[in-house]
Every structure is written in C-alpha cells, then in structure tokens.
Write a structure and sequence with these properties.
Shape: globular
Strand content: under 5%
Largest sheet: none
Number of domains: 1
Number of strands: 0
Structural class: mainly alpha
Amino acid sequence: MNIIAWVILGLIAGAIAKAIYPGRQGGGILATMILGIVGAFVGGSIVTFLETGTLQLVGSASLSIPGLVVAVIGAMIAIFIWGLITRRSAV
C-alpha cells in the first residue's frame, strides 16, 4: 500500500477510534493520523496471529471496509495502551 493510502487510512481510522473510545484523548490531526497508522499495524498483526498462529508485524491489507475495521480496532487498542503508559497517578 502506498504512503498516501496509509495516511488516508490513518486519518480515518484514528478519527473513528477517537470518536468511539470513551474519555478525552489529546492530540491534533498528526496524532490522529499516527494513531490510525499504528492501529493498522496492531490490528493487522492481531488478525495475522489469529489466522496463522504466528506473530508478525503487518498492516491492514488494503484501504477497504475490513481493513478500516481492523485499523479502528487496532487504534482503540493503541489508545488504551497509550493511556496506560501516560496515566498520571493522583496524589
């Protein structure tokens, strides 16, 4: 998949994931795009693991509805993990 398709998929998946995920997530359009691209890799890797039983770093297959769904699920997982990493303890 070329870089423009990755950017488009990242923007769409990141925006949908941010809209679905509860709570407030910071970041602008660049953070949303990066979140969606990371989500495409996370989701694609999970789907590949479920299909083949091997853990590989792969992105969603294409700019399609199933690829978008996988990228959104992966982006939601990435939001969750990012929240765990950056969580501040209440004192």
